[in-house]
Here is the input.
Amino acid sequence: MLVLRPKWPAPSTVKALSTTRAGGHSVGAYGSLNLGDHVGDTASAVAANRAALSAEVLLPSEPHWLQQVHGVELLDAGLVTDSEVIADGSYASSENTVCVVMTADCLPLLLTNVAGSQVAAVHVGWRGLAAGIVERAVKQFNCPVSEIIAWAGPCIGPQKFEVGAEVRDQLGGSSEAYVELPEGKLLANLPLLTAGRLAGLGVLSYSHEEACTYSDPERFFSYRRDGQCGRMATMIWIESDQ
Here is the structure.
């Protein structure tokens, strides 16, 4: 099993990772570490994959899986008891509470603070970004914004994320985040657009995984590339020091 871990200045008690597609039990379009239970894979394979991940990375508790809808709803993970709850992110301040989002091209954003007292996992696609999910996530932190640390896991890269002019109109952002293509199309830089949103809020400690889900079929699922596919998971928690 191959997992990616952020290289960021977070306290050692804050644990975070993003999975790849390697090391699971699913087959075919879902091969092999599909963690999504809503994409057509067999329930037994998804359950086996989640159990294998938990054992591999020593998760302190069952992650709080969400039903994501490209919205802006964020929940306190400590209060989530139903796996069918609809939200596109969660946050926690209690120890050993695992926040998680699933992606297959969208940007998985993790947040914590310099004290390591709060964490959040956010599903950032262009719709959620335009609707203000990053701003809503930052508002959950009760520390100065300058103390927030952010990291983005693998997502579709700026050479592959083709959008229409109407998407740019909704997203805004600097001209540096777009490349003009023929017939009114553009290439959008999702990590850079996210960085711009964070910087506008005062969050300057931001880094992202230099990987493109679309361009790396060996390591990543990609909905835009394959249509039917599995999902990676990106998660964060505060580990107990006991």
